[in-house]
Amino acid sequence: MTGPPHSLNGESPFEVARPYPARVASEIGWERIARVMDAFYDQVTMHPSLQHPFSAVEDWPHHKERLTYFWWVVLGGEKFRREMYEPVPKHFRAGFNEHLLSEWLALFERTVRQIVPERLADAWVERAKQVGAGLVIANKSLAERMS
What we know:
CATH superfamily: Globins
CATH architecture: Orthogonal Bundle
Shape: globular
Number of helices: 6
Strand content: under 5%
Radius of gyration: 15 Å
Number of domains: 1
Structural class: mainly alpha
């Protein structure tokens, strides 16, 4: 599917807790989120620190589509697929840490701000920081349990 459905009769097919008001995702728009994902992950593949952890990605178009949907939902968009995300084990295996998060966030913020209007970019970047911080905490916890 290339974008959100135009109509779900006002209801989500699944029960969804929205972390952000739906207007953030809809104001940014599916197409703009997809443009950010394209530009961002194209840069990741060439980034000196980030390209290695992301080298496990075998199908970039699928990865970008999946992450477009992820951000659509995280930013409050209507959930219209049954996607399962397991970011902690994947990022843990890739060696994701606070340093990589810092590099990821800097590149992500630059990319978002190049494509998205300031007010909406501010909301998206703030949410990305929250998601990233949660991922670092989860990875640290996983590392402690494994040692």
